[in-house]
Amino acid sequence: MSTQISSRQLILDSVRAATERLPKQTAGWTELPRRYMRRGSLDAEARLRLMTERLREYDAEVVECAPGDLPAAVAARLAASGRHSFVAPEGLPGEWMAAGFDWKIDHALPTPEIETVEGVLTAATCGVAESGTIVLHHSAAEGRRVLTLLPDFHLCVLRASQVVETLPEYFDRCHTAPPLVTWISGPSATADIEMTRIKGVHGPRFLAVILVRDEV
Amino acid sequence: MSVAAGHRAVLDPELASPFPIAAEVELRNPQLRKNVAHAIDVIQAKRGRLVAEKTDWQQLRSAASAIRAHALENLGEYLAEFETRCTAAGGVVHWARDAAEARKIIVDLLRQENASEVIKIKTMTSAEIQLNPALEAAGVSVFETDLAEIILQLGDDEPSHIVVPALHVNRSQVREIFARRMGLPELSDDPRALTAAARNYLRRKFLDIPTAISGANFLIAETGGVAIVESEGNGRMCLTLPRTMITLAGIEKVLPRYQDLEVMLQVLARSATGERMNPYTSLWTGVTPGDGPQRFHVVLLDNGRSAILGKKTERQTLKCIRCGACQNACPVYRQTGGHAYGSVYGGPIGAILTPQLMRLEHAQTLPFASSLCGACYEVCPVKINIPEVLIELRAQVVDQERKQAGRVFDPMYLGMRAAGFVFMSAGRFRLAQWLGRAGLRLFTRKDGWIHALPSLGARWTGTRDLRGLPKQTFHEWWAQRGKEGS
User: What's the total number of domains in chain A?
Assistant: First the structure.
């Protein structure tokens, strides 16, 4: 342990000596230049249209529904996926779990059991329209990270009120920094072989989004 | 022997050939040059489109540059803050002064875990410290999980690009490697089939191997969080399924606050792969009960970085966020590919980073592996003035060489001294111009070009043509123009 402490001290000492050797060029963190676009300029309709467009560019399916129609919309998407077994995060609203499918609820399910299901249904924290990004904070209705990773199909419920236009607008909504975050921009992909984009490497190969029109 | 390169590239700066010699080998491999040119044309075109649509691109660059500069100027405070927060969240922070210490820390951690196998997310820093050979020597089997890294590992090859490490390998070469190493003789060369083969090859390993190693794109001082930017989901697999996670990160990777990601994520994906956002970015903080690895270690690596931090011109090198845009933009990299740089960091950023990490004891030819055209600076999302650092390092290399015994009569230094003497006087300069014109006229062909020069001059004309000198100098033309009274 003693060599660890001394390496820490040596590194920090040499870092501090190095930073003190030169005058500071930048101001404090709050004064750093931030003249980039913080807020978008689109109205609500155009913002949702952009979110949908960007998601579709990633080959994600997008459907819209009114808040009262959500359970029916979920059931329709699950049926359309042609899959039967699904996993649900512990805190997923009960009325989303459509009848007629096999549901496993994640009360600390072992990984091999999650590996056997065909799909997952979750809520989300935020949608960023400009890049078609879905942000998960892994709350009780969004589930542990493994749930949205192993199943091949991810159906995500995103509310219109959660959709922002720019990435900085998402950060403005975070009053405290979350400990776990996953930013998802389309299904897993690679372009490692001759820059040919191939959808679906290790994460879910299919992403579908239900956009709930809770505000217009 | 690597299929793609035809020989095994040496990416250890202590052992690699000087750039001009290594580059000559690569230049004789047309398949490699074709593969590299195709790949960077695709990325460059995508990047160009997505940068052009971003009306606040220059403002984002300025902010990204300022955030990185600010983080470096206060690095001691931010590192200490990161350590405190990460520890409070259940992580264990280790400090490594150099590559050997980092390797030892990681091998010791794996021994404590009784690990005989480990899965890895692509990390250039682990290649920098030559981690894989050390793990194999310690009896640990290493499984790379990034598709490009699998191609390289199974093909016994080395990375040639920071972001797309196997861009020098084409589909039929990948097919050959996978067919041979995965035992799939019927495999087609369709990238879809090749990707599926990699998915199957790795699936059980993700589920069964309880120990993982990663790098880090960003460390967040404010929260102790670590962020990884990726595309395939192999990163998420490694970050989520194992019992133990070991993250190796250079000390310069710290960002002050979580909110800084609003800038860095926007510039990184566009610069690296020409996407508005990469498919997956993960952020985790220490250990979360019930979710992901329950043992988490971070190894903070100095390995020459604090020495770079103390130098005025060179410090900006550490702002780098490893997007690879400078490689894609570089006319030299485009011709030679990455292996010629003799380091895991190729292209313009490698030409300045590698010699500095080596304290100029190795890789002294790299600062000269550039035409100083400035394309790298223009595309850099954190505004590293790479040409400025190249020139500074060139001066240091020359100073270093001049001090060596036996250099006094070196033709280059004799030439430089002669040039210095000539440039000091207008009369001598005019005389030299006249002599040069008279002498070079002998070698100038009818097309106005010099195709071959004798002796030392052949070192230039061996690989390029030289335009013949014009009949008049600008001064002579100007003076004559005045006399004619036009």
Answer: 1
